[in-house]
């Protein structure tokens, strides 16, 4: 399971752009982190919400992927994000977890914290739905 997730993660160019790392993969849970780079900040200096969403959407998606059969992929059907605080710090840590895994729908939740000098602060929470899909032809 973990090698499958890591191989998929390695193919994600967006995550490479964010310099993200896959920190933890367990059944129904995934943790991804990325430094807050100058290139991923918005005009006020805080991390951009797009980077925050990318990390937590991906963490939640991989959490869902841990619970479905090999040869199947997942895609986000819907995702709601609440941005609670500006993304100020050295890095973002996104955790995704499965709330309920059904045959057709997988409900997920996630949290993003900003870390600065070893202290963390929750900056975003999400809830969403993933759907199992067939992989693209040729994979």
UniProtKB/TrEMBL annotation:
This is Phenylacetic acid degradation protein. InterPro entries: ACOT13 (IPR039298), HotDog_dom_sf (IPR029069), PAAI_dom (IPR003736), Thioestr_dom (IPR006683). It comes from the Bacteria. Residues 45-116 form the Thioesterase domain. The keyword Hydrolase applies. One of its GO terms (molecular function) is fatty acyl-CoA hydrolase activity. Keywords: Hydrolase. Belongs to the thioesterase PaaI family.
